[in-house]
Structures are given as structure tokens and as C-alpha cells.
Amino acid sequence: xxxxxxxxxxxxxxxxxxxxxxxxxxxxxxxxxxxxxxxxxxxxxxxxxxxxxxxxxxxxxxxxxxxxxxxxxxxxxxxxxxxxxxxxxxxxxxxxxxxxxxxxxxxxxxxxxxxxxxxxxxxxxxxxxxxxxxxxxxxxxxxxxxxxxxxxxxxxxxxxxxxxxxxxxxxxxxxxxxxxxxxxxxxxxxxxxxxxxxxxxxxxxxxxxxxxxxxxxxxxxxxxxxxxxxxxx
Amino acid sequence: xxxxxxxxxxxxxxxxxxxxxxxxxxxxxxxxxxxxxxxxxxxxxxxxxxxxxxxxxxxxxxxxxxxxxxxxxxxxxxxxxxxxxxxxxxxxxxxxxxxxxxxxxxxxxxxxxxxxxxxxxxxxxxxxxxxxxxxxxxxxxxxxxxxxxxxxxxxxxxxxxxxxxxxxxxxxxxxxxxxxxxxxxxxxxxxxxxxxxxxxxxxxxxxxxxxxxxxxxxxxxxxxxxxxxxxxxxxxxxxxxxxxxxxxxxxxxxxxxxxxxxxxxxxxxxxxxxxxxxxxxxxxxxxxxxxxxxxxxxxxxxxxxxxxxxxxxxxxxxxxxxxxxxxxxxxxxxxxxxxxxxxxxxxxxxxxxxxxxxxxxxxxxxxxxxxxxxxxxxxxxxxxxxxxxxxxxxxxxxxxxxxxxxxxxxxxxxxxx
Lengths: 233, 417
Fold this sequence. Notes:
A: Rossmann fold, four-stranded antiparallel beta sheet, B: alpha+beta, elongated
């Protein structure tokens, strides 16, 4: 059976051929199977964010093949890539990335709007996701009226509202205190136990230790890929 | 993403920045109001004028015989050419339906306590004519035939009235009302500059329905042109020839031109024959020209308004780069982003257009009152065009910012502050 994610010799090079050429990803190969919990760890500048952008179909690699569920994403149109981002992947960002002018509920509904789901079903799905993160009582608030931890929970609700098979979290705890950070990580574990594939990008070894598999990047190259005992903190 | 969602998003974004939205719309509002005012005022004026011309009848030739000769005191030595013209035209029975002088008589008309000197042009608050001053015309027995008049009461003028210098007159329907109210004027004597003239007939109103009420067109008194012997006035220089049908116009015009050449000594005067329809056409063309020039100037203000929309939309796109990145990340296609921003620009302009149409309606009313003393409201097609135009402007000037928004790379857009 095909892997859920398969990177084959991926390069992402900025300003190729120039003196100032930057190899954000320098020949990375990696496979991830359904149901895994993978931490991609590395220092700032190691290429882990680029990796996440490539994995999340937000960016196209300069060279190399990326097969997502057996499909080569380099051959896909913008429309198809948008579709994948919408249905297959749920993004959680360090800076939450909520739209400030929309209410909590509207933010969570947004990916469902782009799926063309009718208003009633949309509301039900969004409320379901908000209940899971414990924010069903604050749906009319604006993101700015909430704490960082609450905003991140809204972002998680948005990511899971479409019930995507893959959750991608880019430094999801980076802007949170350790207690709320741990809640977020526990939630990701919970999602993984329910069958979601979780890819967690972090610079923090302590956080990487909560994943069963740890992929370490440095200077755009993969220097370590190990299965590990979960060190639950 | 469906249209309803896009509309909702656009509305929220516009409403969220009310002050800026109104300022952005100003250009469109002013432009649309200006175009509406100009086009509908001109259109209304032309339409109403043409309505009156139609009521007075078409297929008319205007004939001018100008006199060059004056005595030492500046009095015209012009000869009365009308009897000759009358006889000639009446010999062209297969072409001509009637001929009459068309000249104002400046006499004051009096009946009992009512005097035309006390009758003034008055309008109500809505610009409808309440009363006008009756106009006296010198005519022939064929004045009615030339001006689409039909007799309601009594008799019309006759050739005999001319020959015998009879002091008689026929009243238009409004003039009859003004002097006699509901009483029958036939047989009554009126005084024109103190001279007794007997009313022999009353014409039926030429306009029907609402337009017939208080219309100045029927506020007329027609008297035999020979009455100038007692009431004064120079020999008539302007005449109207009514031809049988449109096909007769050219032929009748050329025959009459030929006849007048032989009739009037080129040293004593000059002659000219116009087709009334040509005159109408040239007036139509002139009005069209004026509309085009004024409309063009107004259109420039619309263009400027449109560029204003484009500027603000570009600013909006820059401000919302991160939002666009987020939307793209969670699955918005390029087309969804384009739809969103186009919809916003179109709605902005659409709302501006509606306000502009409101102002333009007021504007065309005011312009109609001030310039033409008419009540003019924009025609439905003008309103529809103005609205479509404003939405189209929004779409045209929204395309560039919308495409720019859609072409942002999701990764870079997400990185924006």
C-alpha cells in the first residue's frame, strides 16, 4: 500500500545558481504512514518550516517528487491543491492565524464555506469542533477578545472542522505558556489516537519527545529519523 | 464558495470600514449623479418637446420671406406676399393641405374684467403649469389645418374673414377657459387693444389626458392676419405650409422655393423654405450632441471615481495579505479570492450607484425646473443603465486588485505582518 506521505529527494532552493543561493531543503526523502505521530524538529533555519509548507501543499518543491496519498502534487493545479489543503490537511499555526474581523464561529466555518457546505450543516460541524475544544460558549466572540490559549483552541477547531486525515501543527505551543501548551499537545495526542496522522513541527526537543517518531533536520538535510518511546511530560 | 457567501463577505468588509467605504464611493456617487442628471434632463426635454411637436402635427414646411426695404423711420416697406402664397399653395391641391402665416399678435385681449395683461405664467410646487398668458396669433382660414387644430364649437376662420377684414377670432380650449370659464364664448365680443372682435369658434384641446390640463399650447387666440390693419404689426414674414404626407414634403418644398424666387425681387427680400421635420431632426441632433459632450464630461468623473475604487481595493488587498494567506491555506481557490474582492468592489460601486441615482433623480428634477421649466424624472432605462454602469465599473476596476490578491503565494501571504 502506498504511504500517506512520500517525499522523494526533495529540494527547495531559493535563488538557485546565484552566489546567495539558499538550500532550505537539500535532498530530503521521507515517508509517513497513516496514523503516525511525527515530530519534525530542528533549529531555526534548519528548513523545518519549508518542510511543513511543502508537506502542506502551500509551497511547491524546486525538485523532487511529493506523493500525497499516491498523487504527485507537482502535477496538480491550483484548484486541486486548494482542494487538498481544504479537505486533507488541517493547519495549526504558531500565530493562530485567525481572521480578526470574523467571529470565532465564522473562523471555524471558513474551511467549510470553501467546501460549499450549506449553512445548517456548516454550523453543526463548526459547533461540534468548538465543543471538542471546549469553546462552544464563546462562538460570538472575536479572536482579539480571547487569550492566546483560547485562540489556539479556535484554530484547532478550525483545523479539525473538516475532519481531515492529516493535522499539521507548526510550533503550535510556541506562543503559549507551558500549561496551555501541554493542553494543546494532549489534544494532538488525542486526535492521533482517534486515527489522525499528526505532523508536528517544533524547535523544542522536549516537545519533540512527545511524538512516537522524531525526524531531525539541520541545514535542509535530514540527520535523524527515529522511533522513540513517548516521553510524556 | 457561492455567490451568497461572497455577497455576505463583501458586505461585512464594506460595513466594517464604513467611513472609508463612503469616501471611496464619493467618486462613483458624484459621477453617477452627474451622468443621470445630464442624460435624463436632456432626454426629458427632448421627449417633451417632441411630444408637443407631434401634437402640433408633422409634415410641415416653414416658409420665410424676409424684407430688406425700410423707410426713413425704420418702418418695413415689406409687401404682403401671403395672398400670392395662399393662391399658389391652394393650386397645389395634390401636395398641400394648408398654408397660414405664423405671426404673433401683441395686442392685449380683454373680456369683461379679464385681461391677458393680468395673466401670468404660474406653476405649482411640482412644476406643473397652473396658468399661462394667452398667445394671440395671426393666421389664415387654414391655420387650424396647419396646426392640427379641430373645431369644438362654432365655426373656423374663412377666406371671407380675410377678404373683408372681419374682426373675428377663434379660441383655443385653454384660452376659452381662461376668459369664459364654463360659459359658451361663441358670439361674445372680446376687446383686442380696445377693438371689438367676435368669438366665432373654439378649438378642441390638442393634448389629451394629464398633458391637456393647463397646457400653454392650447392657450391661444387665432385671428385673421388681416386684422393687423387695426391691431398693428408688419407684413407676416413667417408662414407654415402643411403638406399632405411625408412623401410630399420634398416636392412641395422645391415647388414653393421656385415659386418664391419668381415672386420676391432679390433686391427687396429673401426667401427660405425649411422642412419642419428637418428642423426637428437637427434639433434632435443638437440635443444629442450637447448630451454627448456633457455626458462625456460626467463620464470622466466616473472614470476618476473608478480609479479611486481601484486604489482603495489595492490598499485593501495589501492590508489583508495575511487574511488572504490564511484563506488560501485553509482551502480557498484563486477563483474564490477573485470572487471575494470583485464582489467587494462591485458592491461598493453598486451602493455608490444607488446613492448616485437618488441624487441624480433630484438633480434631473432641479435641472428640469431651472433650465426648461419642466418636470423631469429619469426614465426607467436611464436608471437601469446607471446602476448597471456603476456595478460594471466596480467589476472593471476591481479586476486588477482581485487578480493581484489571488496571485499572492500562500506561503508569502502567510508571512505578511
